[in-house]
Amino acid sequence: MSFKNLFLCFSLIGLIYSCSSDSNDDLSPTPNPDPNPNPSGKVTYNGNIKSIMSSFCTSCHGSPTSNGAPMSLTTYAQVVNAVQNRSLIARINSTSNPMPVGGLMSQTNRDLVQQWVTDGLLEN
Ligand code: HEC
Asked: Do 57 and 99 meet the contact criterion of CB atoms below 8 Å apart?
């Protein structure tokens, strides 16, 4: 290999290296990968689930219940009970029998509820 080719080779490696090491210099700020406020990084009832329930569920599953809903979803214990004994996870992902009644919540919200179960149904 001639000196010229060797030089080209090294400049090419240098160019590739400088490109790849710059790849994090994006103009847009990196979005927070975990919006969860819990310092342990886990999904909790008070941090995440309570607000989802009051936005999408308690209009019927309130206290008292309305529109024929069979139980309240206004406290930690009630929501845990619905997960364990009333197929809450299946219903929020069901296309044939969805909860809320009108149509499913966003994938993000459904994932959060699922992650809450996976993380151990933490209250705080
Ligand atoms: C518009 C009123 C309404 C909203 C909003 C609503 N539900 Fe319901 N829900 C009902 C009614 C009525 C039933 C009983 C009939 C049925 O099971 O489909 C029910 C049943 C359920 C059941 C089954 C209970 C059982 O023991 O069989 C679960 C679990 C449930 N809802 C969870 C939720 C969750 C979680 C949300 C919010 C993401 C939600 N629901 C939003 C009206 C509602």
From this structure: yes
CA of 43 to the centre of ligand 1 (A): 22
How would you label 59-79 residue by residue, b for 16+ Cβ within 10 Å and e otherwise?
Answer: ebbbeeeeeebeebbbebebb
10 Å Cβ neighbour count for 92?
Answer: 20
Alpha carbons 112 and 89: distance in angstroms, whole number: 11
Q: What are the Cα distances from residue 47, in Å, to 24, 37, 82, 100, 124?
A: 31, 6, 18, 21, 7
Please, how many CA atoms are within 13 Å of residue 79, restricted to the half-sphere of its CB?
A: 25
What are the φ/ψ torsions at residue 11 (nearest 5 degrees)?
-65, -35
Q: Across the chain, what does the average pLDDT equal?
A: 84
pLDDT digits (tens, 9 = 90+) for 69-89: 999 999 999 999 999 999 999
Q: How far apart are CA 25 and CA 88, in angstroms?
A: 43
Pocket test residue of 73, 85, 101, 114 for ligand 1, highest count of atoms within 8 A of CB: 101
